[in-house]
Specification:
This protein is of the alpha/beta class and 326 residues long. It contains 10 helices and 13 strands. It has a domain at 6-179 and 216-244 and 278-296: 3-Layer(aba) Sandwich (Rossmann fold). Residues 317-326 have low confidence and may be disordered. It binds uridine-5'-diphosphate (UDP). Residues 80-81, 176, 187-189, 192, 204-206, 211, 213, 249, 272, 275 line the site of uridine-5'-diphosphate.
Length: 326
């Protein structure tokens, strides 16, 4: 008898995690959403709670978890610099202890496990665009290290579990992703600029604004993650997932002012330490191995995101607007 896929999503109440849970429910899976709600939000999962195939557990993955599942998406970790630098020791712990716990669980129940890794493993890259074979340029003692080195160590653990135990592992290196359910106060550039523009406040460009990023819409990212999880045993990655359109932060600010029709201006603030200068994924591998490429143009995705924040800012009391991310 065919039974439904039981899928565990850590960080399931976060930005990416909640979109992934919805997608898995739509594909008829049973979904176990695990989150400690440090940056995840109840609002992100409320609509799923009435679905009998959805289960929601408050749990911190730095502690072991005993459940029976077929697949594990390991997304649990605060993703914005503001949040992951709030408690950097805990950020390293969730990346390292969290990975060990989830890999141990995957080993015991023979589940496939996918790690949400990051473009941050490339650090301030000397290779452009970034290809998966580049080993990176990360400052191991700087303020971003808890996240960057934590994610790098998690990749090491995934490959060592694979080599020692022959496990089905998958590693996605996620580049900057944006969309509805980012949080008002998370400090990431798209959400911050959209909120400033909607409130008519100046957009805060760090440095001269000629640093670049490549922004992927959340729906495209979820497609890539699901495709990677469902590849054969021999496909491990790491595989870059992200949009290839590179844009300066100053251009992004201009685009958001234009698309919101805002009268906001731009002010410059100090560039944070170790802020990468350029970032753009080479997604050749994702195209070849997964048949995946992002399809949402930046303007379209930004418009969706503006719509989300516009509704949020106009319907929620100010006291409940700022929380974490995922
Ligand atoms: N940034 C900015 N103003 C802001 C927030 C971010 O100019 O209010 C810049 C930041 O310095 C970085 C880029 O936007 O160069 C992307 O920042 P984000 O925190 O979104 O992502 P990451 O640096 O992790 O790629």
């Amino acid at each position: 008898m065919n039974r439904r896929n039981r899928v565990l999503v850590t960080g399931g109440a976060g930005f990416l995690g909640s979109h992934l849970c919805e997608r898995l429910l739509a594909e008829d899976c049973e979904v176990l959403c695990v989150d400690n709600y440090f940056t995840g939000s109840r609002d992100n999962v409320t609509a799923m709670l009435s679905n009998p195939r959805f289960e929601d557990v408050r749990h911190d993955i730095t502690f072991p978890l005993y459940v029976e599942v077929d697949q594990i998406y390991n997304l649990g970790c605060p993703a914005s610099p503001t949040h992951y630098q709030f408690d950097p020791v805990q950020t390293t712990k969730v990346n390292v202890h969290g990975a060990i716990n989830m890999l141990g669980l995957a080993k015991r129940v023979r589940a496939s496990i996918l790690q949400a890794s990051t473009s941050e493993v490339y650090g301030d890259s000397h290779v452009h665009p970034q290809t998966e074979d580049y080993w990176g340029n990360v400052n191991p003692t700087g303020p971003r290290a808890c996240y960057d080195e934590g994610k790098r160590c998690a990749e090491t653990l995934f490959f060592d579990y694979r080599r020692q135990h022959g496990m089905p592992i998958k590693i996605a290196r996620i580049f900057n992703t944006y969309g509805p359910r980012m949080l008002v106060g998370d400090g990431r550039v798209v959400s911050t600029f959209v909120v400033h523009a909607l409130r008519g406040e100046p957009l805060t460009v760090y440095g001269d604004g000629d640093q670049t990023r490549s922004f992927c819409y959340v729906d495209d990212m979820i497609d890539g993650l699901v495709k990677l999880m469902n590849t054969p045993h021999e496909v491990t990655g790491p595989i870059n997932l992200g949009h290839t359109r590179e844009i300066t932060i100053l251009e992004l600010a201009g685009m958001i002012i234009r698309l919101t029709g805002s009268k906001s201006g731009i002010i410059h603030k100090e560039l944070p330490k170790d802020d990468p200068r350029r970032r753009q994924p080479d997604v050749t591998k994702a195209k070849d191995v997964l048949g995946w490429a992002p399809s949402t143009p930046l303007e379209t995705g930004i418009e969706q995101t503006i719509g989300f924040f516009d509704r949020l800012l106009n319907t929620e009391p100010i006291s409940s607007r700022s929380s974490g991310d995922g």
